[in-house]
Amino acid sequence: NAGVTQTPKFRILKIGQSMTLQCTQDMNHNYMYWYRQDPGMGLKLIYYSVGAGITDKGEVPNGYNVSRSTTEDFPLRLELAAPSQTSVYFCASSYGPTGNSNQPQHFGDGTRLSIL
Amino acid sequence: AQKITQTQPGMFVQEKEAVTLDCTYDTSDPSYGLFWYKQPSSGEMIFLIYQGSYDQQNATEGRYSLNFQKARKSANLVISASQLGDSAMYFCAMTLYAGKSTFGDGTTLTVKP
To answer: So what's the pLDDT on residue B2?
Structure first.
């Protein structure tokens, strides 16, 4: 029972490099999310998707891009890495609209990204 | 825009005692869900309890209960009979019907033996 799988677990990038954080879920969830968590802080929503082909910006989308071509996959792209993007990135998924229904988000283990 | 406020950066509780972690929220949307998650030092996010905006009764899940006061826009988490394994960071979160989610900055709970 894999749940939400994120790869890689750790990565070090140089300023200006690009990379894609992978996220896949095997629970047939419609909703998927990307968050970043800075040290000692809460999670900030970067982008989310309510289904294949549909994405929307969260609180901190600048410097990131996403796509959702399938229900299972929701990759996060960093085009020009900056030191401010050093963080732990979490991908999450849920079955349906979580407002006013008990559909908690299931989280991956996170990707620890350092940009030097 | 929605907002979650957790005013207690750190809390201490004696083992076997109860503790309340505070959470206030702000939204103009009438339909929302409130969630509490636990993040141990290992880093994973664990769902604890849910409360819907239209729910009439406070949610309970084992040793966890949610004190939901809609008029005050508060959704405090109560942990009864604290255990050493409860030491972790706790996050309050709100999700609107369209899926957009907001998390608080968290409260670090330390359970003393």
So the answer is: 87
